[in-house]
Specification:
The complex is a heterodimer of chains A (284) and B (163). Chain A contains eleven helices and 14 strands. Chain A has a five-stranded antiparallel sheet. In chain A, strands 11-12-13-14 form a four-stranded antiparallel sheet. Chain A folds into three domains: 46 residues, Uridine Diphospho-n-acetylenolpyruvylglucosamine Reductase, domain 2; 113 residues, Uridine Diphospho-n-acetylenolpyruvylglucosamine Reductase, domain 3 (2-Layer Sandwich), CATH 3.30.465.10; 106 residues, Enolase-like, domain 1. Chain A is globular. Chain A has 284 residues and is α+β, with helices and mostly antiparallel strands. With 163 residues, chain B is α+β, with helices and mostly antiparallel strands. In chain B, helix 4 packs across helix 7. The chains are: A alpha+beta (284), B alpha+beta (163). The structure holds flavin-adenine dinucleotide (FAD) and FE2/S2 (inorganic) cluster (2 copies). Chain B: It comes from Rhizobium subbaraonis. Chain B: This is Carbon monoxide dehydrogenase small subunit.
Chain lengths: 284, 163
């Protein structure tokens, strides 16, 4: 399992990395933790002549919380997300989700930037970022731009990021209300059979706003706007939850694969969403 | 795409070598440096037999390019203990039958070493969660968990006695 040959680069600034990507052209790829990319390279499913390693770029690291705005550098590892107390206070759902990704060794090196830029529908962070309405910060040869997580995913492994753009950071407003990330997987280190991110805000005992996103149930993460609307304004009774579940089922599109037939995944998605709503509501 | 000059610190000793960027750390350790403690079980980032400690993190060395490791400080099972001076974890794996064929053991112990640095007084559940990136096909895990809990108790007793 030895990948095809490539040249290796380790720039120490974002500007140098962007310039390398522009100069090297199509056959260049950035590598973050490498824990999605290296397995693909070993199977020779990629055509990469140059790897641009981001590990030395200090500006891509770290978690900053300024008022309600949370900004996470792309090269922040899942382990660092789990260990950050301020982040656990501002958005506990990130820690809850990160603890359910892969295994300890993978979490020490896998980054949030790699997880969301990868475009694999199995990745857990993209759906969560849609639930939080996060913004992705990109830097390319023509400068910086921002794009919403909800507008970023086009199809499996296809995103709105241009080949020569680097994701530098992710930012979002710390959400009000209760949050829950619930994931069904067959074993440790497995991608989700179905997972749900749910945020529920309450006022006077009723749900005032809700955001719901699902993972690995389509070729992109699915933010279920109508499912959130089904809960908003309701007392979160059984019928309200079933309305949200129905709205979610109308927008996912799971396929048969080694995790099970599509019908089983739809069943699992409904169970997982009910649990996530209940958990988020109990924390609101 | 020639070879790269790579510098590492392995088990406390500085080493320099030439390697193609695509060479994986596990291959460099085993084939260039004859450090054969870390094993290749699956080569697909699942089993943890290739686990080494790199800059204070447990990593699967089958999923790190030698080029990425350039400049890193790497510890393998060979750096934790010797046949005459076993690490407490090695002693406890022996005493509690934490191994049968032994194939997973170097990865298990190297991971457990880092886990206990981060969580010196774990519960059984925390041990199981912290060790969930390492697979064993023989023991059924029970004795591995026992060995790690016993090592934690022993290390804590030694620490207390020293104070
Ligand atoms: C055994 C195993 C189990 C796993 N289980 C899960 C799981 O349950 N859930 C889950 O979500 N993930 C899982 N993963 C994937 C893991 O979380 C990856 O680490 C993560 O998806 C990618 O992060 P990375 O830093 O390793 O990125 P890399 O592998 O380095 O990169 C992934 C892709 O993103 C691109 N990229 C990376 N960073 C940037 C950037 N800053 N800007 C632009 N492009 C960039 C790369 O070019 C590449 O195409 C698993 C991996 C393994 C090996
Ligand atoms: S050989 Fe590296 S995880 Fe199995
Ligand atoms: S002792 Fe044989 S695989 Fe663990």
């Amino acid at each position: 399992m030895i990948p095809a040959p490539f040249d290796y680069h380790r720039p120490d600034t974002v500007e140098a990395a962007v310039k390398l990507m522009a100069d090297l052209g199509d056959s260049a790829r950035v590598i973050a933790g490498g824990h999605s990319l290296i397995p693909l390279m070993k199977m020779r499913m990629t055509d990469i002549a140059h790897l641009v390693d981001l590990q030395k770029i200090g500006a891509l690291k770290g978690i900053a919380i300024d008022g309600d705005t949370v900004t996470i550098g792309a090269m922040t590892t899942q382990q660092e997300l789990i260990g950050n107390a301020a982040l656990a206070g501002a958005a506990p759902i990130i820690r809850e989700a990160a603890l359910q990704i892969a295994d300890p060794q993978v979490r020490y090196v896998g980054t949030i930037g790699g997880n969301v830029a990868n475009g694999d529908p199995g990745n857990d962070m993209p759906g969560l970022m849609q639930c939080l309405d996060a913004t992705y910060h990109l830097q390319g040869p023509d400068g910086a731009r921002e794009i919403k997580a909800r507008d970023f995913y086009e199809a499996a492994y296809f995103t709105a990021r241009a080949d020569d753009e680097i994701l530098t950071a992710i930012s979002f407003q710390a959400p009000a209300g209760g949050q829950a990330y619930v994931k069904q997987k067959r074993k440790t280190g497995d991608y989700a059979t179905a997972a749900a991110s749910v945020i529920i805000a309450k006022s006077d005992g009723n749900c005032s706003a809700a955001s719901i996103a699902m993972t690995n149930l389509s070729d992109t993460p699915v933010w279920c706007e109508a499912a959130g609307q089904a809960l908003a304004g309701s007392p979160l009774g059984e019928a309200d939850v079933e309305n949200a579940v129905r709205a979610m089922l109308a927008v996912i599109n799971p396929q048969d694969d080694n995790k099970g037939p599509a019908e089983f995944k739809r069943h699992t998605a409904a169970v997982i969403l009910r649990r996530a709503i209940e958990r988020a509501a109990s924390r609101a | 795409m020639g070879k790269m000059h790579i510098k590492l610190t392995v088990n406390g000793k500085p080493v320099e070598l030439l390697a193609e960027p695509r060479e994986l750390l596990i291959h460099v350790l085993r084939e260039e440096l004859s450090i054969t403690g870390p094993h290749i079980g699956c080569e697909t980032t699942h089993c943890g037999a290739c686990t080494v400690d790199m800059d204070g993190r447990s990593v699967k060395s089958c999923t790190v390019f030698a080029a990425q490791a350039d400049g890193a400080n790497v510890t393998t099972i060979e750096g934790l203990g010797t046949p005459d001076g076993l690490h407490v974890l090695q002693t406890m794996f022996k005493e509690h039958h934490g191994l049968q064929c032994g194939f997973c053991t170097p990865g298990m112990i190297t991971r457990a070493y880092r886990f206990l640095q981060e969580n010196p007084d774990p519960t059984e559940e925390e041990v199981r969660f912290g060790m969930s990136g390492n697979l064993c096909r023989c023991t059924g895990y029970q004795n591995i968990v026992k060995a790690i809990l016993a090592a934690a108790a022993e290390l804590n007793a030694v620490k207390e006695a020293a104070q």
